[in-house]
Amino acid sequence: MVAKKVVYLRGAYNLFNFGDDLALIAWLAFLYDFQKPGPGNLGIFIEKRFRSVALLKIAQNEMAEYSEAPDIAECINEQFIKFCIPIRFPSAFSLIRGIKKGRILSLIGSFFLSFIILFDLTCYQLFRKCFFIGKHIDFIKRIDVVHYIGGGYFTDWWRLFVSGEFLVILFYRIVNPHLRIAGTGLGIGPLKKKLNIFLFKTFVKRFCFLSLREEQSSDFIEALGLKINKATLGDDVLLLFPYFQKLKEFENLGACPHTALNFKDFFEHDYRLAGEQIDRYLAGQAPSSARIEYYCFGRKPGPDDFSLTALLKDNRSQPAIIHDPYEEGWLQFVGNLSRAQEAIGFAYHFGMIATILRVPVVSIYSKDYYKQKLMGGIKQLNRQAVIFSIDDVSTGRLSEALNTARAIDQNKIRDDMETKYKAMKFQYTSFYNGVLFLD
Q1: What's the CATH code of the domain at 247?
Q2: 72 with 46, same domain?
Q3: Same domain, 246 and 386
Q4: Are residues 146 and 264 in the same domain?
Q5: CA 89/CA 43 separation, integer angstroms
Q6: How do residues 1-33 score in pLDDT, each as one tens digit?
Q7: Angle at Cα 98 formed by Cα 95 and Cα 100, nearest 5°?
Q8: Mean pLDDT of 215-220
Q9: Is 413 helix (H, G, I), strand (E, B) or coil?
Q10: What's the confidence (pLDDT) of residue 234?
Q11: Fewer Cβ atoms within 10 Å of its own Cβ: the N or the C terminal residue of the chain?
């Protein structure tokens, strides 16, 4: 009997950010399809965090089954109970989140948790015996591939993530030297701080395969002088291309034409002026265009797009619908967006999904982080994509931009995307066959 191969999917999902959750869904769909014709027998693990993916109503007959990876703090707590030690740690994720919010107790808890892990890891190295983290070490020894799925989390803004993953992989490779590490659909940067660059460079050297979502990230890897197996294949959400095309086939059923509008709750965005300009533009349009349907790409405890959208919606004189994927499910949410006749939005994955659905879309960014995501990631799919800065939003500019978006040959874009989807699927299938079954 062939031993089960274990894949551990890591990334920024399960944090109530729809784009990152959709990247996980894309890989569950791919791995489900990957197992059907091939050797199969995969064990797939994910991180649980807030379990937001579970609210997106995934069809189990079309997605690979998965289990939640054991949390190292919970493993230690189990041993504390066994040894009658009256201390309990929050999850490792909760501690990191607390540190980011400046909580002293989280910092103290992280220090003691790290001390216990280091002590037990030393015992394991010297005596092959652990007191507290044996269950987690057994899990690490089973893993064949740690796979970082799509996202833009290797950046100065996510400095705790960069340093944390550096330590995680260092730990994992000590326990399991044969572990393979890969990344797909990743956006790298902006990375300007020397320490973050050093940690990332040391970390990414261990990758056996790296697929990037835009050329700017590829150029950054080249500038670091890294010689690793890499390709620029685009965003992982493109793996859902067949699903999106089926939804598009039913675009005229059950919904009125509308303008899809998206706002992203991000600390660098100030929507007051932009919102006024968008309202002025829409007020002068035909009734079908003036009908607004809002699309939220996050909610608490993640990016609170829902509350922000509700606030902006309440300031409008006309009623409007708010779509929330964590209420509707991902297929219904994307299906509703497929029926829009035009779209204006700030979230990266809003622009990405609208592009794949062939909805004329104008994407608006703020500052360098989102500029790289939108200008690089979306234009990787559609070189003619209409994208500009929040500082340039005006009624005239919106009208001109949407006219340009409507004039794009969507059938040609679809053919180009299908070619890129097939190239992506071929590369990922080849990688997984090679790393899991041909060594």
Answers
A1: 3.40.50.2000
A2: yes
A3: yes
A4: no
A5: 28
A6: 456 899 999 999 999 999 999 999 999 999 998
A7: 115
A8: 94
A9: helix
A10: 96
A11: N
Residue 194 in contact with residue 201, Cβ under 8 Å? no
* Same domain for 272 and 213: no
d(CA 174, CA 164) in angstroms, rounded, equals 16
Q: What gap in Å lies between CA 380 and CA 83, rounded to an integer? A: 55
Give the span between the Cα atoms of 77 and 82, in whole angstroms. 9
Please report the pLDDT score of residue 251 as a whole number: 61
pLDDT, residue 302, reads: 83
Kindly write down the DSSP assignment for every residue of 157-187, as one continuous string. Answer: GGHHHHHHHHHHHHHHHHH-TT-EEEEEEEE
Q: HSE of 429 in the Cβ direction (CA atoms, 13 Å)?
A: 17
Q: How far apart are alpha carbons 75 and 192 in whole angstroms? A: 36
Are 18 and 161 within one domain? yes
Euclidean distance between CA atoms 136 and 75, whole angstroms: 7
Answer whether 278's CB lies under 8 Å from 398's CB.
Answer: yes
C-alpha to C-alpha distances, 402 to 223, 262, 397, nearest whole angstrom = 36, 15, 9
User: Are residues 158 and 285 located together in one domain of the fold?
Assistant: no
